[in-house]
Design brief:
By secondary structure, the chain is α/β, with parallel strands linked by helices. The chain folds into 3 domains: 97 residues, no CATH class; 93 residues, Beta-Lactamase, CATH 3.30.450; 259 residues, Rossmann fold, CATH 3.40.50.300. It is built from 13 helices and 17 strands. The strands form 2 sheets. Strands 8, 9, 10, 11, 12, 13, 14, 15, 16 and 17 form a 10-stranded mixed beta sheet that branches. It has a 7-stranded mixed beta sheet with strand order 1-4-3-2-7-6-5. Helix 1 crosses helix 3, helix 9 packs parallel to helix 10 and helix 10 crosses helix 12.
Length: 462
């Protein structure tokens, strides 16, 4: 069980918050004045880079803080400690360039999730599974909403609204974290931030973390290099995006990648050395007149005209499943995506449900034929509070790849598959059913030794 405490970080107590709020407006005005001041030649001041703006803000904050502390001393009040002063300066910068108090948690490498239920009640979940209730993250709900609106205007591919007319928001923050917010449909504004602590990693890193066994990592690496189409499944927060990034690290840098997401999250386009030719596409909501929406399905179809070597769909959520499967079966070999499911076998039922709801209204038999011709492997991640008796809060990894399923064929209402890797007990997945001969040959060309796959055949009908 996770523990639950109520606190703010030691460096962010009430004094620091009061100081930051007292000087924030003065700092913003000082920065605006500096940026408007003409240069020595009479011209307007040149535009400043991001680091230069941060340095200007810090300088202005230190000056404003000195003035404010001087006023406190004149008024006979005790001056703040140097620790409070430093925390106040850091917080002002977080308010001006980030998400205020929340920014300090976003920058904490041990934080995984942040959930805000109104201005004064927020929960932080850490990578070891522990959870804390933190103090106010804004002075009011109105300030909280304004903070999100500012982020929506500054971050992402295009400015997004967050108001009563558009009460939903999905946004990628500068560090790659995913922010989801709602208002008006809830009594208080709600913000959920999913941090991606492992943004640039390889399969070997997941082995070191205990998420993958060595042979499973070798198998998956060869499958990506052999341009096999892969779906990663699991529950929410199971680590699907993390695994997808690690799989993408096996793609040669010479290949052109197009990623498609509801809200930018994968960040492969930011890894210039690893993926120099990568285009990230993001769905767009309708404007206030109800027009201009561009959904995932439309973006998948567009990607087919972009000379992509591989198409990666960050998360399959609905009718985009059919164009994605068509892309996989029409020459975009090596494409990948993630999907919510509670087991590798149940992925096929989830795909069938999405396909039945899509405009094409594909019947089950047609959907299964499409799956059999498009998907080569399904990789399932399990998320548990404990493995083998080790509780959350320990160093035991909570996420593990527990199943890899090879799609063999379709037979009417059934998809035929082999579970080629399967978890035994509390461990990660190990070789189980043998691979098909042609799969063995294809993976062998890319460095995988399939001699361990010699167990009796275990075919699943789903």
């Amino acid at each position: 069980m996770s523990h639950l405490a109520t606190r703010l970080p030691a460096r962010l107590d009430g004094t620091a918050l009061r100081l930051a709020r007292a000087i924030k407006a003065d700092v913003a005005e000082a920065m605006a004045t500096q940026r408007r001041t003409p240069s020595a030649r009479g011209a307007e001041a040149p535009a400043r880079s991001g680091p230069e703006l941060h340095e200007l803000a810090r300088t202005c904050a230190l000056r404003a803080l000195d003035d404010h502390v001087g006023e406190l001393i004149v008024a006979g009040e005790p001056p703040p400690s140097s620790t409070d002063e430093q925390a106040a300066v850091d917080l002002v910068l977080a308010m001006l360039f980030g998400l205020g108090v929340l920014q300090l948690f976003i920058e904490d490498p041990s934080v995984e999730n942040i959930d805000v239920n109104g201005a004064e009640r927020a929960f932080v979940t850490y990578s070891d599974g522990s959870k804390e209730l933190i103090g106010p993250v804004a002075s009011s709900d109105e300030e909280l909403v304004e903070m999100v609106r500012t982020a929506a205007a500054r971050f992402g591919l295009a400015e997004r609204r967050f108001d009563h007319a558009q009460p939903e928001l999905d946004l990628r923050l500068p560090d790659g974290s995913r922010l989801s917010a709602v208002m008006a449909v809830t009594e208080r504004p709600v913000i959920d931030i999913r941090r991606h602590r492992l943004a640039d990693l390889e399969l070997s890193d997941l082995v070191a973390l205990g998420m993958l066994a060595d042979d499973a990592a070798a198998f998956l690496g060869a499958a990506v290099r052999a341009k096999k189409n892969i779906l990663v499944s699991g529950a929410m927060n199971a680590g699907k995006t993390t695994l997808l990034r690690a799989l993408a690290a096996e793609i040669p840098p010479t290949e052109r990648i197009v990623t498609i997401e509801q809200a930018l999250e994968l960040g492969l386009d930011r890894q210039g050395e690893r993926h120099p030719d990568c285009v990230a596409m993001e769905a767009r909501l309708a404007n206030s007149e109800g027009v201009g929406a561009i959904g995932l399905a439309q973006l998948v179809r567009r990607s087919l005209r972009m000379n992509a070597s591989r198409v990666i769909v960050g998360e399959v959520l609905g009718d985009e499943v059919i164009p994605m499967l068509n892309a996989m079966s029409q020459g975009r070999a090596g494409s990948m995506g993630t999907i919510h499911a509670d087991s590798s076998a149940s992925v096929f039922r989830r795909i069938a449900a999405y396909a039945a709801q899509a405009p094409e209204r594909l019947p089950l038999e047609a959907t299964n034929l499409l799956v059999a011709g498009a998907v080569h492997f399904v990789v399932h991640i399990d998320l548990r509070d404990s493995w083998g008796g080790a509780a959350a809060g320990s160093d035991t990894p909570l996420r593990r790849v527990v199943s890899v399923r090879e799609v063999v064929d379709a037979d009417g209402p059934l998809v035929v598959s082999n579970e080629v890797f399967r978890a035994e007990g509390a461990g990660a997945a190990v070789p189980a059913a043998p691979l098909r001969d042609r799969t063995v040959e294809a993976l062998a060309e890319h460095g995988y030794d399939a001699r361990d796959h010699r167990r009796p055949l275990a075919v699943s009908w789903s």
